[in-house]
Amino acid sequence: MTPADFLRSLWKILAGRPQVPPALAGNPLVKTIMNRRSVRQFKPQPIPEDVFSVILEAGRLAPSTVNLQTWSFAIFTAETWKTAFGSAIPFRAQKAVIVLGDTHRNRAVMETFPHSPLVEYTVAVTNASLAAMNMNMAAEALGVSSVMLSETGRSGLLDAGYLVEKLCLPSGVFPIMTIVFGYPSQAYPPMPPKLPLNQITFTDRYRETDPVILQDWMDQMQAGYKASHLFSSFEAQLQVYRSKIHKAEEDLKRMVFYGPED
Ligand SMILES: Cc1cc2nc3c(=O)[nH]c(=O)nc-3n(C[C@H](O)[C@H](O)[C@H](O)COP(=O)(O)O)c2cc1C
Fold this sequence. Notes:
By secondary structure, the chain is of the alpha+beta class.
């Protein structure tokens, strides 16, 4: 990418805004949703227990398939995380929740997913992800920032096999992501490049995204990453994921198709 292309891409990122009709932009919930950002820099300021309890309650009350509530949340403070994982919570956040899909619990009272491991896994992931988003939004509404993580060194989706042992997870419990929470230490970063609505929607038949717009988005992704990580690159970050994906794939296959108790 030439320096001119790099600057052009950065400019496009900085010019990006949520598209909301002015008459609706003042709605507090709409504002919270539109202004949310993944935050990776936190102050050493504790989150009051009542505030954190509301965040967890938002997870508990999330919608789920047939109200099955196929989730569990492993909850950590900075101290308990250090004891469990031997390091600070990623980005020195104050609290962490490992969100797990959980179809194990209900097996005690019903047979919900006979011989359908992919459906079972998908339902667990879908519902637990909705609970995660509910927690994320409740946090935002209360001034607490967060980021969802699948690659945290030891506690994300890509470390599913490790977490099974670490957290003694039974068959039917799948690590999905870790959410870390805290008060932001800086102003929110700019909105990362989001594809235009008319490129991600269709009405009758699936429509391929315009390749020029897709390439432009990719250029912005690379430029944005470079601007915030001078000594790395988007490609290098993808490489971190790729280096862990094969092992994670094998671990997940084992968990989804042949749980430890099967
Ligand atoms: C399931 C999930 C996993 C994610 N994993 C990571 C991660 O491992 N590391 C990270 O820095 N950000 C992670 N993110 C945050 C994304 O990078 C972020 O959502 C994306 O860049 C868009 O930015 P925004 O959330 O500010 O809109 C994850 C987000 C989701 C939803």
